[in-house]
Amino acid sequence: DAAHVLDRDCTTLSRHVLQQLQSFSAEAQDLSALMNRIALAGKLIARRLTRAGLVEDALGFTGRTNVQGESVKKMDIYANDVFISVFKQSGLVCRLASEEMEDPYYIPENCPIGRYTLLYDPIDGSSNVDINLNIGSIFSIRRQQGDDLDQKATDLLQDGHQQLAAGYILYGPSTVLVYSIGRGVHSFTLDPSLGEFILSRENIQVPAHGANYSVNEGNFWQWDDSIRDYIRYVHRHDGYSARYSGALVGDFHRILMQGGVFLYPGTRKRPEGKLRLLYETAPLAFLIEQAGGQASTGTQRLLDVVPSELHHRTPLVIGSPEDVALVESFIQERR
Ligand code: AHG
Ligand code: MN
Ligand code: MN
Ligand code: MN
């Protein structure tokens, strides 16, 4: 009926958060305001991306190398700074920890302690930026514990169960924001004519099994025998389809929607894998478990991993329960 249609068209992100929590408590208001800021960052980055080819100085490399040892794209820095600027006046976030910054950024003024910390990957899949393929931003929100006067941010070195909220923005043919505050996974599509993210899917559940397996097979000879055995298995059996975009957010979104498994295993050179725990694998693990799926390092539940430092890396096996279990069975066999 008309009222329902009107209602559906107007379920914005901040309203949805308050509906989720069925309360107007301080924390509910905080989370709603935090998600609103995330949405604003997403809109600003999406706008820049849609015009990147036309705007001077938007594409290409900065010539610098980040703490990860990666060549930094101009878009990495632009997006990194967008998140800082949208949270500066919020009074909600006192620290921002990002893939692109060795140490967290502390918002100097008017920052009451015990509030929130944003952990984020400003542009995930940077290698896709200059070729106009899908990229994303990944975010995770934790409560700041203690006053962190020495600015060592040691309270961030806790497992993924500490996350209050997590999600991502996928910059694709449309801009989609997916989030969870621990009450299911929900997706919103940006309506550019409104400048609002409008609810598109509620309580997303990952299928128990899916055909997609998503992994960079160029690393085949660097993997452990157990992973090679798994790959040989899917090569030999019907019903599997290889899909890999080079951007974790896009590959994850496909798995969330259609089922299957994404893997980024450790290699001989880098046994701990490439992906970073605090702002890549832990937020996605939070989401996939909320959607009825699983995430592990291959041997340990991902949400239980305690980081040794801010840019801690973990191997990742994530997706449909049956498909994650199959990968883990090959690893168990070889242990
Ligand atoms: P980022 O662009 O934030 O550094 O992340 C890139 C990550 C992830 O998005 C993707 O799944 C993976 O790197 C691709 O790595 P390979 O090119 O080694 O497959
Ligand atoms: Mn990077
Ligand atoms: Mn990334
Ligand atoms: Mn990144």
Mind sketching the topology for me?
Elements: H1 2-9, H2 13-21, H3 26-50, E1 61-65, E2 71-73, H4 74-88, E3 93-98, E4 105-106, E5 116-124, E6 135-143, E7 163-171, E8 175-180, E9 186-191, E10 196-201, E11 212-214, H5 225-236, E12 241-242, H6 248-258, E13 260-264, H7 277-290, E14 294-296, E15 316-319, H8 321-334
Parallel strand pairs: 3-5, 11-12, 11-13
Antiparallel strand pairs: 1-2, 3-4, 5-6, 6-7, 7-8, 8-9, 9-10, 13-15, 14-15
Helix pairs in contact: 2-3, 3-4, 5-8
Bound molecules: 2,5-anhydro-1,6-di-O-phosphono-D-glucitol (AHG) and manganese (II) ion (3 copies).
Task: Characterize the structure shown.
It is a single chain. The chain has 8 helices and 15 strands. The protein has 335 residues and is an alpha+beta fold. The strands form 3 sheets. An 8-stranded mixed sheet has the order 4-3-5-6-7-8-9-10, with helices on both faces. Strand 8 and strand 9 form a beta hairpin. Helix 2 runs antiparallel to helix 3, helix 3 packs antiparallel against helix 4 and helix 5 packs across helix 8. The radius of gyration is 19 Å and the shape is globular. The termini are far apart. The mean pLDDT is 94. 2,5-anhydro-1,6-di-O-phosphono-D-glucitol (AHG) binds next to strand 5. It is an enzyme of class 3 (hydrolase). Its EC number is 3.1.3.11. It catalyses: beta-D-fructose 1,6-bisphosphate + H2O = beta-D-fructose 6-phosphate + phosphate. Keywords: Calvin cycle, Carbohydrate metabolism, Cytoplasm, Hydrolase, Magnesium, Metal-binding.
